């Protein structure tokens, strides 16, 4: 695929991010304008912020022609990602954390990967690949994240080395196909289901090692998130079993007809 045909939409799910929103967007714009030559769109997806995030987001949209601010009625990364995909018009679409925990220079690498490999459909950033570099990670957060990966490998045979790095990019058609197949979960688990379904559907996924820096001001509630993950894993495992049962039933009926 030629560079001229590629465009990319960077989705930024935010909730009460008055302290980090402007800095994150400014840094991203500065990097893109200096190092990226394809057309870029930045979409701020506000999950119902109650601080000054809306005012800051609207101001950034007025300041930069590349930036769009979207106010959503529901909270959750899943809501933001799902709506971002539905609104997207670019050839590539993906989401990033507004704190830029993943080194922003990997954006350039992702674009080059999609340019060089037309067959590539999905790039999944990983903090736990052998070549990944992580800094400032709190021990309990590292243990819970690695524990999640372990459970996903045990129960879903996940091939990827990370599922919630917060740095994922796909081709438009692939993103839309996966969104149609996924549940309507509103939280972080939606992005996990996205990856698991991609592997299940045979999507070409590249597990990309990244350089990642812990953000000490994160608002994620670890134990509440873990509990939700466990519940959602049970739900998804049950859904996969039912889907497999239905497929077997269809094959059986087709065989009887023949």
Name some characteristics of this structure.
258 residues, alpha/beta, Spore Coat Polysaccharide Biosynthesis Protein SpsA, Chain A, seven-stranded mixed beta sheet, globular
Describe this structure as you would to a colleague:
This protein is 48% helix and 17% strand. It has 258 residues and is of the alpha/beta class. The strands form two sheets. Strands 3-2-1-4-7-5-8 form a seven-stranded mixed β-sheet, with helices on both faces. A two-stranded parallel sheet has the order 6-9. α1 links the parallel β1 (8-14) and β2 (40-46). α5 packs parallel to α8 (222-257). It is globular, with a radius of gyration of 19 Å. 37% of the residues are buried. The model has no long low-confidence stretch (mean pLDDT 92).
Report the mean per-residue pLDDT as an integer. Answer: 92
CATH architecture label name: Alpha-Beta Complex
Rg from alpha-carbon coordinates: 19 Å
Using the alpha-carbon principal axes, give the shape: globular
Could you state the order of secondary-structure elements as H and E?
Answer: EHEHEHEHEEHEHHEEH
What oligomeric state do these chains adopt? single chain
Structural class: alpha/beta
State the fourth-level CATH superfamily: Spore Coat Polysaccharide Biosynthesis Protein SpsA, Chain A
Ends: how far apart?
A: 42 Å
What is the CATH T-level topology? Spore Coat Polysaccharide Biosynthesis Protein SpsA, Chain A
